[in-house]
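Subgroup meeting minutes
Present: P.N., E.W., G.H.
Scribe: E.W.

1. P.N. recapped why we're keeping a running log of single-chain structure predictions: easier to compare across weeks, and new members can see raw inputs and outputs side by side.
2. G.H. added today's entry (304 aa).
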Amino acid sequence: MRLRLFNLKYFTLNKKAIYAIIICAILAGSNGLLIKSMTSLTTGTIAWFRAAIPIFILIPFLIKDRELHIKGNNKRMLLASLINAARMYLYLLAYIYTTIGNSVVLFYTYPIFVTAIEAVFYKQRIERKQTLLLLLAFTGIVITYIGKPFSFQSNDFVGMLAAVGAAVGYAITVVLFKAENERYSKNQMIFYQNIVGAIVFIPFLTNLPNASLSDLGIGVFYGLLIGIVVFKLFFFGLKQLSAATATTLMYLEVVSAILLGYFVLDEAITWNIILGGILIVTSSYFISRMNKNAHRKELEDASL
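Output recorded in log:
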């Protein structure tokens, strides 16, 4: 009887965790809609709301839990936070200058860059399968850009270049934050991700007098939704599910974003976005799985 109750409880928690990750992915897919809707705000002002709102919300909880203090390698964490601020700015530029589909598909190349960074700077061996997947992802990027001009006068070129830059920046922060992850709570990690951005984007607040009240409200909502709610849902799901399952479900963000762009903003879904997106997401997915398996094997070998 007890075993049956335990299994029922475990199944219920697993079900809730899966729903949490799915909702998380759909909400994350609304990124582009929210960014494009804040037409009276500059890129830097939007970035400040995205970084500062989570900080303001988390500070009381960090004080309550006595976690508002520096520990571990704070220089590395602050460097990661600075890079994350630059990544955030490029991420916003991508959505402002090109379509939601282009932005989200190219941003999801970040696992490929994680692999490349770990191979170059941490001397991790790249397997033949990973090399083939890297080439597959590069092919996807080329296909995604077919028919668009290579010129900084082209909004698509600037936006898509920014999306790739954001993917590189995010990959660097993933590597840096991963090295310190065990020393910090989830709230501390979110705090460190955003603290430098909340400071460096302050000069952009000079734009606030020209902003509409509705856009200011969306800015606050954007910071709360993407900076807190999405992360909390993901961490909740991650407690009950394996990392592989959670990250796999998060690829629904790509589908969600493209469909929202199509139905809400009438953005075209072209053949090259579909084909390029499939190649990029497929390669990113398998590279992520391979990286996780390699990391798990390292931990098992270390424990022997």
